[in-house]
């Protein structure tokens, strides 16, 4: 088992019990690795060991993440599944598939696009965590203040990775980056307690004394105004003036270097199949045709000549449309 956890060769298990133990130990090791590598997720899940940290998004750490992923994949592939329960076999298969998919994402360099308009984009995600973190003790607040002071490093690391993506031609669409710049302004502009990062000040638990509340408020607002907001202003200026102008003009993934492979990967991760995008598209067209044929049968049964006239009648029937906000809720 030690060899399994440290990446060495795995000897054939003498019985199903030891194979099961090895698999469970490996699952536990991967989970521990995940929590340490993703401290925000650990905090949200109630594990406070890494409460004062953000995820390391530097290029050096991303390379280490790929190495660790490949190591875990080898270890899961080496588990002797003979004699395991169906549930354990499924766990092993799912982890192998997930780790392979993660590796493929690394090899397609998708990590080189950390800046985009979606919530999971690093600069937006940092702000979204505030509502998810638990604040129950003084230490929770103190750890959060430490996190705020470390936030500029995360934004600097994001810029470092984004610049590499720009050099490799892995750029988000320009029009989305321009919209993102406006959203980032809204994170940097509000001062003090009005800033999104000050939300925890609105939900002190009763167990925290007035003295601690006053100190925490002062330290948190100072961190926001002196550290967080300036960091976001610098980051926003980078996006607005140095990054967005170089965004790609075509929105489709096909316009990226190796875009077809990236699109196939997106289809694979979202459908859990290895079917080609063209095949998935044809399946979709066939399903639309089948459903509309069934709808046409219903339309004709209701006395309409075809589906189009049935749809037009439905659209024009005031009985089918809510007349007020209360009516919407009632329906």
Question: Quick summary of this structure?
Answer:
By secondary structure, this protein is an all-alpha fold. It has helices spanning 2-5, 16-37, 39-44, 59-78, 86-107, 122-128, 138-167, 174-188, 210-243, 259-271, 277-301, 307-316, 325-330. It has 3 domains: 1-107, no CATH class; 117-257, no CATH class; 277-330, no CATH class.
Chain-averaged pLDDT: 92
Number of domain modules: 3
User: Any low-confidence stretches, pLDDT <50, length ≥5?
Assistant: 1-14
Structural class: mainly alpha
Tally of DSSP helical segments: 13
Rg from alpha-carbon coordinates: 26 Å
The number of E-state strands comes to 0
The rounded distance between the terminal residues' Cα atoms is 58 Å
Helicity range = 55-70%
> So what's the overall shape?
globular
Percentage of residues in strands? under 5%
Largest sheet, strands/sense/barrel: none
Instruction: Give the SSE string.
Output: HHHHHHHHHHHHH
């Amino acid at each position: 088992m030690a060899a399994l956890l440290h990446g060495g060769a795995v000897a054939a298990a003498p019985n199903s019990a030891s194979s099961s133990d090895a698999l469970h130990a490996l699952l536990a090791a991967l989970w521990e690795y995940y929590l340490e590598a993703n401290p925000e997720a650990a905090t949200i899940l109630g594990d406070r060991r890494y409460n004062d940290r953000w995820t390391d998004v530097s290029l050096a750490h991303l390379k280490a993440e790929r190495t660790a992923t490949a190591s875990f994949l080898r270890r899961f592939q080496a588990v002797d599944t003979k004699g395991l329960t169906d549930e354990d076999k499924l766990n092993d298969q799912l982890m192998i598939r997930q780790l392979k998919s993660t590796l493929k994402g690394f090899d397609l360099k998708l990590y080189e696009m950390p800046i985009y308009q979606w919530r999971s984009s690093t600069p937006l995600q940092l702000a979204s965590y505030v509502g998810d973190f638990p604040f129950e003790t003084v230490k929770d607040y103190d750890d959060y203040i430490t996190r705020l002071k470390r936030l500029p490093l995360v934004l600097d690391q994001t810029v470092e990775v984004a610049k590499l993506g720009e050099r490799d031609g892995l750029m988000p669409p320009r029009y989305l980056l321009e919209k993102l710049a406006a959203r980032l302004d809204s994170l940097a502009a509000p001062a003090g307690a009005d800033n999104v990062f000050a939300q925890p000040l609105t939900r002190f638990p009763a167990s925290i004394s007035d003295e601690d509340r006053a100190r925490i408020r002062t330290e948190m607002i100072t961190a926001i105004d002196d550290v967080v907001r300036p960091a976001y202003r610098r980051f926003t200026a980078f996006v607005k003036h140095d990054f967005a102008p170089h965004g790609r003009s075509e929105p489709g993934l096909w316009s990226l270097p190796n875009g077809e492979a990236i699109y196939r990967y997106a289809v694979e991760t979202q459908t859990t199949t290895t079917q080609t995008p063209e095949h998935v598209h044809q399946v979709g067209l066939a399903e639309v045709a089948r459903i509309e044929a069934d709808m046409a049968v219903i339309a004709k049964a209701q006395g309409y000549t075809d589906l189009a006239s049935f749809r037009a009648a439905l659209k024009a029937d005031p009985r089918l449309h809510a007349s007020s906000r209360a009516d919407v809720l009632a329906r």
